[in-house]
Amino acid sequence: MKFSILRAAVFIFVVPACAFAASNVVNLSHYDLMRPDFVTMRSEGIVGVIHEASYPRFDRDSQYAARQQAATRAGLLWGAYHFGDATDPVRQADHFVSVVSNAWEQADPLSRPAGVLLVLDFEKNGHYPGGTMRVDQAVSFVERIRERTGQYPGLYSGEYNLARVLNNPKVTNGQRAVLTNCWLWIANYHYEPRATAPWGHWALWQYCGDGKCGLPRSAYRTSVANIRKAELNIFRGTRTALEDFWQGRAWQPGGGKPRREAERSLTADMQVSRQPAESALSETLR
After folding, report:
1. Which of 49, 92, 266, 271 is 20 to 30 Å from 35 by CA-CA measure?
2. Which of 228, 167, 220 is nearest to 198 (CA)?
3. pLDDT tens digits along 196-221
4. So where are the chain's domains?
């Protein structure tokens, strides 16, 4: 019994605090061939879905529009991402906005999301044509999205890739500063991301991709609803903070003005959710 208690105590201090919060965001694309059960997703604690909308070269995800309506009907928040490449970033941004806007307009009014959370997928391009997007192109893309929608998109990348790209001596401080206007969505399937500079912290952590996860399965699930090999994410904060974060940054294609939550209260909420185990984890996760 003493050994069991000790082992349990060690486990609590080794595993990140946010692991005990349910994964609450799913990302999908046309590569997910099943018909996602969004109703069950919601019953299992999922709050939002971020779906690929467009990808190289100027294509649109064939599943985006239908899944947008199904997810919204199930009561889930909706987001869209664009997989960037090395072609004209302004044209890519315009295409992305067009795909998201058209899907929103064509949806039944009862199944339109109140707003769409936008994201640039900024990673090494190994399976689409067009090459890999550079930092200067990413800057042009996010500035164009802000110009068109009034909102900076989120920026998604793997922790290692992001550090490697942004530490390139050709990248200027001005370019880094522009990108930090975007909220950070970072992937690491083995441990909680730490290398987030020049951001102070990540907002969303993808800990599982296509069911691949090197973290304890007892704390980090790898499937949800009818998707066995899921892409799952944890928000850095409470469920209420996630809903406020999403609604505050979402673009409303219908022309409504997005509501921006108070950054100070959101940051405080995030910090409260992290404090209990932060000091105990600082060394074990290195």
Report:
1. 92
2. 167
3. 999 999 999 999 999 899 999 888 99
4. 17-284
